Amino acid sequence: MVKLEEHKHLTENKPIEKAELPSKVFIPLLQHLGKPLDLIKVKAGDDVKRGTLLATSDKGLFAPVHASISGKVTTIADYPHPVSGFARAIAIEGDGKDEACPDMAPRSEEEAAALTADALKKIIFEAGIVGLGGATFPTHIKLSPSKPIEDFILNGAECEPYLTCDYRLMVERADEIIKGMKLVTNILKPRSCYIAIEDNKPEAIKLMQERARMFNWEVVVLATAYPQGGEKQVIKSCIGTEVPSGKLPFDIGVVVHNVATVYAIYEAVYLKKPLYERAVTVSGSCLANPKNLLARIGTPVKDLIGQCGPLVKEPKKIIMGGPMMGIAQYTMDGPVIKGTSGIILLDEIQEREQEETFCVRCGECVQNCPMGLNPGLIALAISKDKLELAEEYGIMDCIECGLCAYLCPSRRNIVQAIKAAKLRIRDAKK
Ligand code: SF4
Ligand code: SF4
Questions:
Q1: Which of 229, 296, 346, 383 sits CB 3.0–4.6 Å from 317 for a disulfide?
Q2: Which ligand has the nearest atom to the CA of 407?
Q3: Tens of pLDDT along 267-325?
Q4: Cα–Cα distance for residue pair 404/375, rounded to 1 Å
Q5: What is the number of other CB atoms lying within 10 angstroms of the CB of residue 221?
Q6: Domains in the chain, start-ordered, CATH in brackets?
Q7: Atom 3 (ligand 1): residue with closest C-alpha?
């Protein structure tokens, strides 16, 4: 693991601020790991309220999506998508009233405590919750393991540079996160619970330690390093066990959820609130006022950037997510989706743009790969179209942390090549 420049000072002391109500939102049908939603519940011209179910499915991995503002559905068409380039989205023209669905009434402590594991999972599913750390795996599936769970880990590491929205949630919503964690333990019934936080977040550590004490949950303080917050790395740090190659945390009796996901679980259960907004860090040295914003899903990225401006430098690259694992955006028209933890504007110096050259066999990528892979060798196999060889070299264990590309003196786009090759391998096996 590697110590990176953090750049968290830009927003770590900025409380989460409500973003301005967008006048129009674009809700993509693909905001989860899986296929786009195919059962669309609205049509152009329909009136919707905040929280109205817009689309769902009845097969495969999916999580439903909901309206994030009240207004009228205008179109259902292809629109810029921050991950896949273009994807079908439901556009809603706001009426400025921000009216909520009437069924979004709070539940009492007693009502929440009386819910069975199955009832909780149904609520979480219907709220459309996915992994908000960026993985976007449907949460209700992750809460339905096929074998008993020994350990549950709340992941508050937030190891990506710039991002501070999880940190702010832990500081500002500690009680709610603990309630969300209690709900998760009511479902999974693990033997032990851990809260993993990097040591660059002392205030969050203190707050979580105070609250975790009464449940006997352990707060594990991690050294600040990248990619300390990767699921497999957090598991190793908390319980000392490695997830074997080709296996999932489920297989060794562990479930990990991100802080924002657990907070969304709290909101779904206690407030009957579907996932229609999330905290997003909007940062980078190009912005005069970097912020943590509570943004409605579907808000165009340019609207949020406008609320953190003016631009003090021309951005060379706009990234959705953190700078290491995030995705470069070709347009500012794309919307915030459930997996959007950050919008980062990098200037010319930060972007370190440089031509890709030959591998000089320096070994940096091998020495620092957190999964113990040989990224240079994998990239070579991919370049020769030898995907079977790349598989033998362990390509499917790559967590796409981006360290190899970041450290490579020849600026080789190793992680991009790996991501594309993994998709091809998965497609070939379907
Ligand atoms: S090969 Fe994958 S896991 Fe290893 S450093 Fe590169 S991106 Fe990270
Ligand atoms: S870091 Fe780059 S130059 Fe060094 S061995 Fe890996 S691929 Fe080659």
A1: 346
A2: 2
A3: 999 999 999 999 999 999 999 999 999 999 999 999 999 999 899 999 999 999 999 99
A4: 7
A5: 15
A6: 109-270 (3.40.50.11540), 364-429 (no CATH)
A7: 398
